[in-house]
Amino acid sequence: MSTGTPENKNRATAAAILPLVGGADNVTSVAHCMTRLRLGLRDRSLVQDDALKAVPAVMGVVEDDTYQIVLGPGTVARVAPEFEALVEEGRSASAGAPTAEQLAAEGAALRAAQKARNATPFKLFLRRIANIFVPLIPALIGCGIIAGLNGLLVNLGWLPAVTPALASIASGFMALIAVFVGFNTAKEFGGTPILGGAVAAIIVFPGVAKIDAFGQTLSPGQGGVLGALGAAVLAVHVEKWCRRWVPESLDVLVTPTLTVLLSGLVTIFGLMFVAGEVSTAIGTGANWLLDHTGAFAGLVLGGFFLPLVMLGLHQALIPIHTTLIEQQGFTVLLPILAMAGAGQVGCAAAVFLRLKNNHSLRDTIKSALPAGILGVGEPLIYGVSLPLGRPFVTACAGGAAGGAFVGLFSMLGDKVGSTAIGPSGWALFPLLQGSRGLGTTAAIYAGGLLVGYAVGFLATYSFGFTRTMLAELNAPATGQAADPEQPGDPVAV
To answer: Which of 196, 195, 204 is nearest to 223 (CA)?
Structure first.
């Protein structure tokens, strides 16, 4: 089937996915993040997993509180609106039909069980944190790349008339990020978004420099995104309290006024100081950790990041990254965590060489490896290493080695950071910034990637398969001759 224009291609992908997730009436919500199409479904049993994974644009699927289809960066942002449009068209076409109600009744027990498994308080909290910060990532990436370009031009002494403009473009969003965090927080917690943004704006207002709190003069931006998050949550609670007690005839005047006034006073005379102390502690703690235990810290962070991603616990790091970027201009944690992807790439290369007769898996690796090199790891995780088991562990070993390499240089005074969150792998190079020159920073990061590739490859090649696994996975398909070049050397059990 010809896809024609890119728009037709994206619509064709959406059209291929929709019937495989149970059709329009089975979809309750549509959203997307950097790489995944996230669907709320009435009846999970209607999803055809195997057929969905066979769709060319689909890199893998993940089931959590939502059903997540991995499409990759760029693609998902184009497919999602097409998918949403098809869902709306499907619902309009079937208006009045009882299909949705029937599906809802049949899937009620399944949905309840799924929510019970995933709705732990901690996981729900982390999902809310992700919902607040993930929408900010495109702006962080764009401004981060512009900041890196500006820094390069300044160091080279090029275009001095242009660099102030680039600095303004790159810094404008970060100067007001607290407002966006407040807006998204209020929206996520069920309040009026603009009121959350209004209260959070107090934190970055220059006039707070005239206010004394806790014996010290406040400074604009004190408390950063953590203060903005706390201020917006407080505003939501005040607003909900007002809705219960304020007469409807006065609600439009009284509720917004009390929400901003009460929340604003607490923010100025409490939250900004407390959040400022916490933010300072995060920055100091991260620097101390890498200055004194860099190699070990890098080994632990790089080695355990893939399991954290599998459990969804990596979302807890988003506010920490953002706080470090606010304070220091870059986050020193992301380049170390990115080494987990390098271990994954090395692991996939070893699997490709080991399983010369498994053409299906080799085809998956060939299609997913370029994305993995650029930092999109889901296709390799869910399509290769995780289903195989042991290679997932050896991929983690590669990440640990790469993380230890980058962490070691942090101990030696050569910190490597990223001016934004989101990308990793080779896609992180435009965002790199550190305590030394750009050349040194890029060289250390590249060295960490190479170490991750090498250790992930060697660990997987040597220890990634038992004899039984290798024999079963490498057996030629019926009617297919074995590859004469398949090595017959023993494999560690």
So the answer is: 204
